[in-house]
């Protein structure tokens, strides 16, 4: 494998990922990025974690797994890495990897998020795994924690799962703190959640403050598409999460139509699902949430899987009502 810092695609990639700029941020990213939600904590809502991780979810084992996936992503040319305060030890694992591999600030674009705190105590059976608090006090506390780990590597700081109902986008204290952070050279963004993502994105655009928006869009949940197009037109960078719907669009649970289309094209269902996201003209970075090197390589093959109008029409029927989609997501068990 090529040492970190090279621009070679390295082992497991067929072509280097092209570099591009994310919206107005001037941050260099790649069309496919890596999100660490599934890697930084023992439990998450991705399907098949028992098979992926087994019984050994000690801190040392999870760190080693995270570093292996990060190594593979770097070798494949991935240069956007996404984490959050609530992803267990993900920021810590990422910081250690950056330090151990000698990666200098700016060589990769690192985005993190504030607003949720991890409270799972490294237990699979925790009554609660994270608690949400979108306050100015939480912002100050978590920014200090993120900076203590990531230092100058922190390129983008995002509100975690903002909604219109939360009021955070109208909280003058929070917005003023975000403006101060932006003035210091750190880009600021918002991630969205729930069946009213489009409303949240429209409010984000209205503020005129944010550099990026990160939202869920996939073959099952397309409701934010038009709003994301408007965000892109307004000059914002768009990051797409949950492109395989927490495992529902992988070989483990793919709808029959997606599985059949993938077989015909000799690709995996997850690659075809992510290819659909990559085909959206407003998508700046599409995140892989891979929990293993094998899953990462399957996800990254989306860059060459291809997407066309025939596929779009054929698989349009997979789209669910947003309320149904988010209700199903909310019922997924932490495992």
Automatic annotation (TrEMBL):
<dbReference type="InterPro" id="IPR036812">
    <property type="entry name" value="NAD(P)_OxRdtase_dom_sf"/>
</dbReference>
<dbReference type="InterPro" id="IPR023210">
    <property type="entry name" value="NADP_OxRdtase_dom"/>
</dbReference>
<feature type="domain" description="NADP-dependent oxidoreductase">
    <location>
        <begin position="63"/>
        <end position="305"/>
    </location>
</feature>
<dbReference type="InterPro" id="IPR053135">
    <property type="entry name" value="AKR2_Oxidoreductase"/>
</dbReference>
<dbReference type="Pfam" id="PF00248">
    <property type="entry name" value="Aldo_ket_red"/>
</dbReference>
<protein>
    <submittedName>
        <fullName>Predicted oxidoreductase</fullName>
    </submittedName>
</protein>
């Amino acid at each position: 494998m090529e040492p970190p810092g090279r621009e070679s695609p390295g082992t497991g990639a067929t072509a280097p990922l092209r570099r591009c700029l994310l919206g107005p941020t001037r941050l260099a990213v790649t069309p496919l990025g890596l999100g660490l939600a599934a890697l930084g904590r023992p439990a998450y809502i991705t399907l098949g974690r028992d098979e992926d991780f087994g019984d050994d979810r000690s801190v040392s084992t999870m760190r080693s797994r995270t570093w292996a996936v990060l190594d593979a992503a770097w070798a494949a040319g991935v240069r956007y890495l996404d984490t959050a305060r609530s992803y267990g030890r993900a920021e810590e694992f990422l910081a250690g990897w950056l330090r151990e591999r000698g990666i200098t600030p700016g060589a990769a674009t690192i985005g993190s998020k504030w607003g949720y705190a991890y409270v799972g105590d490294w237990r699979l059976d925790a009554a609660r795994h994270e608690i949400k608090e979108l306050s100015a006090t939480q912002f100050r506390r978590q920014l200090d924690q993120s900076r203590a780990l990531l230092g100058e590597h922190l390129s983008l700081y995002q509100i975690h799962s903002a909604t219109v109902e939360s009021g955070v986008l109208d909280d003058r204290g929070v917005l003023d703190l975000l403006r101060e952070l932006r003035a210091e050279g750190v880009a600021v963004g918002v991630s969205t959640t729930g069946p009213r993502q489009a409303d949240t994105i429209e409010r984000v655009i209205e503020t005129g403050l944010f550099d990026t928006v990160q939202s869920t869009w996939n073959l099952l949940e397309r409701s934010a598409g038009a709003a994301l197009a408007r965000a892109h037109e307004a000059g914002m960078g768009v990051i797409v999460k949950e492109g395989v719907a927490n495992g529902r669009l992988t070989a483990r649970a793919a709808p029959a139509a997606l599985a059949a289309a993938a077989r015909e094209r000799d690709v995996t269902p997850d690659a075809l699902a992510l290819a659909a996201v990559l085909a959206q003209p407003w998508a700046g970075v599409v995140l892989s949430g891979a929990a293993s090197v094998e899953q990462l390589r399957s996800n990254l093959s989306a860059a060459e899987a291809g997407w066309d109008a025939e596929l779009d029409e054929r698989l349009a029927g997979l789209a669910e009502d947003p309320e149904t989609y988010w209700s199903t997501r909310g019922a997924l068990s932490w495992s």
